[in-house]
Amino acid sequence: MVERAYGRLREGFFEDAIEGFSECLLVEPSEPKVYHGRALSYFQLKKWSLAAADFLKAKELDPDEPENWIGLAMCLAMDNKIYESIEVFEELLIRQPRCVRAHTQLARLYYRLGVIAKGHRQLEMALVSRPSLAERRTIEQLKSEQLTLDKKRYYRPDFELLHRESPLPWGGFLKRIKALFHLKSKG
Description:
Elements: H1 2-11, H2 14-27, H3 32-44, H4 48-61, H5 66-78, H6 82-95, H7 100-113, H8 116-127, H9 133-154, H10 157-165, H11 171-186
Helix pairs in contact: 1-2, 1-3, 2-3, 3-4, 4-5, 5-6, 5-7, 6-7, 7-8, 7-9, 8-9
């Protein structure tokens, strides 16, 4: 029964999958994989609160499976409960500090909030957590995108002009002040 429900999920028949997983729960109400499967089906239908409830139940039944934690956190994030999502990711990383996906998704949330330094730190942690080749590519792409955004965010067209006037950070400003005082002292 469970395999049939997962088959419906893989085929994209999410309503049928939900029905199948719900029937499985009548027979085996404490099977975390059934809750996980139904949660994935709800997630595909963008029913965030129902998916979150099932991911939470799956997490309670199998706390060592990181996918249950990640699913719960992603549902919360999609439902604009960003801080609750961050708490779930941070709790997962306390339990499993080398969970690459948790570091990567947490970095995305920090970037979304504008906490750029924490996002960078999470990506660095993901890179030292032995990511697969596909995960490494995702991390590198995310880093590259964020660096491009950072350059646009912090770029000031007059910044180069200020540096050309003086090699010291305040040199151009100081030159103008000195010139102003020099003119006043002559007059």
